[in-house]
Amino acid sequence: QVQLVESGGGLVQTGNSLRLVCAPSRNIDSFNEVGWFRQAPNKARELVAMLFRNGVTNYPGSAEGRATISRDDIKSAVILQLNNLVAEDTAVYYCYARDDYSNYWGQGTQVTVSS
Q: Residue 89: phi, psi to the nearest 5?
């Protein structure tokens, strides 16, 4: 059973930065892709950032230009850095991973941006 454990959420002020960490229960290289999604109240879940096994990244949403996804091979973790936070970044952030057989999701971590 694959587990994705998120950490780093909480209450942050507008304009500040946030660093979320996802620790998979097995090696990152065993996945085809790992990433971060978010879901705000009454909105659909949206992709924030994706990191593919070949190193390519994708930032399709409203956080483009402010988000950076990376991997920490020492800790075997996936990092999401989100800068210049705005109120619209308030959401539950989910870690995601996919291998040849299934998609996997973390439990989610709440991020609340306030002024």
A: -80, -10
Instruction: Provide the pLDDT confidence category of residue 75 given band limits of 50, 70 and 90.
Output: confident
Phi, psi (deg, nearest 5) at residue 78: -115, 130
Question: Could you give phi then psi for residue 30, rounded to 5 degrees?
Answer: -80, -5
Taking phi over 0 as left and psi of -120 to 50 as alpha, with beta for the rest, 10 belongs to left
Question: Based on the number of CB atoms within 10 Å of its own CB, is 88 exposed (0-12), middle (13-18) or buried (19 or more)?
Answer: exposed
Q: What span, in angstroms and rounded, lies between the C-alpha atoms of 78 and 81? A: 10
The two tokens of residue 6 are: 């998120």
- Residue 2's pLDDT is what? 94
